[in-house]
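Allow me, if you will, to draw on your knowledge of protein folds for a short while. I have a record of one protein: its chain in single-letter code and its fold written as discrete structure tokens. Could you please explain, in whatever detail you think fit, how the structure tokens follow from the sequence? The record follows directly beneath this note:
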Amino acid sequence: MSEFSRGLHRIRTRACYQGWISRYELLVFLHVFGSIVWIGVGMTGHALLVWSDRRDQHEFAATLSMAIKWIELPALVFGPLLLVVTGVALVLDGPWGFGDTWVLVGLGGYAAALVFGGVFQAPGTKRVNALLAERGPDDPEVIALGRRLNALMWPELAILLVVLLAMTTKPTGSGSVGFWSLVFAILASAGVVTARALREAEPRPLLASRSS
């Protein structure tokens, strides 16, 4: 039995004897919950924004953007904060170390996502909301800026998927070859999709205009 298995066995055995879940298991629950909130809101919101843009549903996209702004604090701040706090607690409470590959990937990905969101997403979102209030959802500049923001969400989602992959597979030593291959595939795919979306981030005629 490995050192990790022995450590996890001691944690679970102690919890069984006490007739209750252990502190470690409670932290795991909160950690998974934080990741569901963060990744779930991000992926669902992005998918709906892309769907509305593809169908020229600009009013729906504008309403959705305001809804995302409303849930931004509880979902996109609370979720990541809960994720990183419980993640650090799990390393301290469990058979892990801050030098483990998957821990470093998780912390690095978390930091990268925060920086990416602060540098690109937050200023762009403020600008598009200001233009939206001034010109309305069908303005060409509002539409183009919204598409650029949607395009820049792909790298952030890719980073979150890499963090999720690291948390679930916990790569170590020679077993990390497959992990890094998947990381490369995820990031490369996100780069291709982002580049294509940025090229297409130009106002298209409305469906009503096409049919007239």
Observations:
- Helices lie at 3-18, 23-54, 58-76, 78-93, 101-135, 140-169, 176-199, 207-211.
